[in-house]
Specification:
CATH class of chain B: Alpha Beta
Number of helices of chain B: 2
Distance between the termini of chain A: 11 Å
Radius of gyration of chain A: 16 Å
Shape of chain A: globular
Distance between the termini of chain B: 5 Å
Structural class of chain B: alpha+beta
Helix content of chain B: 25-40%
Helix content of chain A: 10-25%
Largest interface: A-B, 16 and 11 residues
Oligomer: heterodimer
CATH topology of chain A: Rossmann fold
CATH class of chain A: Alpha Beta
Structural class of chain A: alpha/beta
CATH architecture of chain A: 3-Layer(aba) Sandwich
Largest sheet of chain A: 9 strands, mixed
Order of helices and strands of chain B: EHEHE
Number of domains of chain A: 1
Number of helices of chain A: 6
Order of helices and strands of chain A: EHEEHHEHEEEEHEEEH
Number of domains of chain B: 1
Strand order of the largest sheet of chain B: 2-1-3
Number of strands of chain A: 11
Strand order of the largest sheet of chain A: 2-1-3-4-11-10-9-6-7
Strand content of chain B: 25-35%
């Protein structure tokens, strides 16, 4: 099982994400943004949190056009798994691998705290390890996490059961309390909360560990 | 030749930064403002032969996120 963690100038959760993948049994390659290919036999691409390219222009916009993203798009197009966390979620929206946009938090403040989430669907390799409707606690830390999508797009996400997580107590103004969404084939997940920061009780909770373990389990079963 | 690209949030998209600027103006005593929308201006110095169509493509692909933003291109000699 191989995970590739992308590294952009300004990424700062890349090593945490690598630790989380390794803890679940993945072999991890760090992949520089100027590379044009993913390592052979990559099962999952992790797009980490941080401030890629200093959040210039729009969060994730410059990263979305970087050389490595062509390979990530090809990986996703052939059914590969992609996990984008925080800035990684913003990158996935900017590349249009996921619908919608992440805008400035409605309260205009950077929010950084442990956040309760509801698991909105267990029908994905990422969320299959949770109990349906379970409440989990995962850290959030973002300034631009206010997920917005037009009414038709939202209806589509709901009809196709593609909302992965919702906030319990909305921290940023996201429409329908959305904290994470899945692609049409359910193999690309973008989420603002940081499951890689909750993989060990020493970190204050291990609810995020379930996500990585479930993904590993799905790959072993496949 | 220069292209000046103005990027604004589309009408109907909530602009919390614009709201904050409006509220700050009000707090400073400028009470004659009914709404504030904040956007950005991007100036491009164009190489000879670059067309307005190419600038439009740049807007579509990078300079604006057309899900929420509109853009206007002005070409200046």
């Amino acid at each position: 099982m191989k995970a590739a963690v992308l590294v952009f100038p300004g990424s700062n959760c890349d090593r945490d994400l690598a630790v989380a993948f390794r803890a679940a049994g993945f072999e991890v390659d760090m992949v520089w943004h100027k590379d044009t290919d993913l390592p052979a036999a990559t099962d999952v691409v992790g797009i980490p949190g941080g401030f890629s390219y200093g959040d210039y222009l729009r969060c994730g916009a410059i990263a979305a056009g970087s050389p490595i993203m062509g390979a990530v798009r090809a990986h996703a197009d052939k059914g590969g798994y992609v996990l984008g966390i925080c800035n990684g979620f913003q990158v996935l929206c900017e590349t249009r691998l996921l619908p919608g946009v992440l805008m400035r938090n409605a309260g205009l403040k950077f929010v950084c705290r442990a956040q309760d989430l509801a698991v909105a669907t267990t029908d994905s390799a990422f969320t299959g390890g949770y109990r349906d409707g379970a409440t989990i606690t995962v850290p959030i830390a973002h300034h631009d996490g206010n997920y917005q999508i037009d009414p038709d797009g939202l209806a589509g996400l709901q009809a196709e059961d593609r909302i992965a997580f919702t906030y319990t107590g909305n921290p940023n103004g996201s429409v329908a309390d959305i904290a994470g969404v899945l692609s049409e084939n359910r193999r690309v997940l973008g989420m603002m909360p940081h499951p890689e920061r909750a993989i060990d009780p020493e970190q204050g909770g291990a609810d995020g560990r379930v996500l990585f373990d479930a993904l590993a389990g799905a790959l072993v079963a496949a | 030749m220069k292209a000046v690209v103005t990027v604004m949030l589309k009408d109907g998209v909530l602009d919390p930064q614009g709201e904050a600027v409006k509220s700050a103006l009000g707090a400073m005593g400028f009470d004659g403002v009914e709404a504030v929308r904040q956007g950005k201006v991007i100036e491009l110095d164009l190489a000879p032969g670059t067309t307005e169509d190419q600038v439009t493509e740049m807007c579509e692909k990078l300079l604006a996120n057309t899900v929420i933003e509109s853009y206007a291109v002005e070409i200046r000699a």
